[in-house]
Specification:
Layout: H1 3-18, E1 30-37, E2 44-48, E3 52-63, E4 68-79, E5 87-100, E6 103-108, E7 113-118, E8 124-128, E9 131-136
Antiparallel strand pairs: 1-3, 1-9, 2-3, 3-4, 4-5, 5-6, 6-7, 7-8, 8-9
């Protein structure tokens, strides 16, 4: 076998191993629901400061076939000072996503970049500053 042919064959086997997969598998599309916050069903505290506490009440993540997403989280904001009113708000982020190995990379149209790990079960796990969020279909 000539050196050129051997180099060509080596290239055919090596290149696919280095390519980043952007097209998700069929089973990744769909609607994921926030099922656990640090191992407990929502609602759950996500952040607390001297000023307020933030609880996630629920959430959904839609992954579309066209590589767009919509991430919606319902939250309760409880002021801890000055007796303010408790507020329930819905935060919606939308944008583009890509999948690389076991990581779902999301980038919203607001400029937010975050990621979730794809578990072997198909669940998605996000580490939000030490708070572990689990999403399932």
């Amino acid at each position: 076998m000539s050196g050129k042919r051997l180099a060509y064959l080596a290239l055919l086997f090596l290149v696919p191993a280095c390519v980043d997969t952007t097209a998700p598998q069929e089973d990744h599309y769909g609607r994921y629901t926030l099922r656990r916050i640090n191992g407990v069903a929502p609602p759950g505290a996500v952040l607390e400061s001297a000023v307020a506490r933030l609880d996630f009440l629920g959430g959904t993540l839609h992954l579309n076939k066209d590589l767009t997403f919509v991430d919606s989280t319902r939250m309760k904001v409880t002021p801890l000072k000055n007796g303010g009113d408790v507020q329930t708000v819905v935060d919606v982020a939308a944008g583009l996503y890509r999948i690389s190995n076991d990581t779902l990379h999301l980038e919203s149209s607001r400029g937010e970049k975050y990621y979730m790990r794809i578990q072997s079960s198909g669940s998605l796990v996000q580490d939000l500053s030490g708070v572990i969020l689990l999403y399932r279909k």
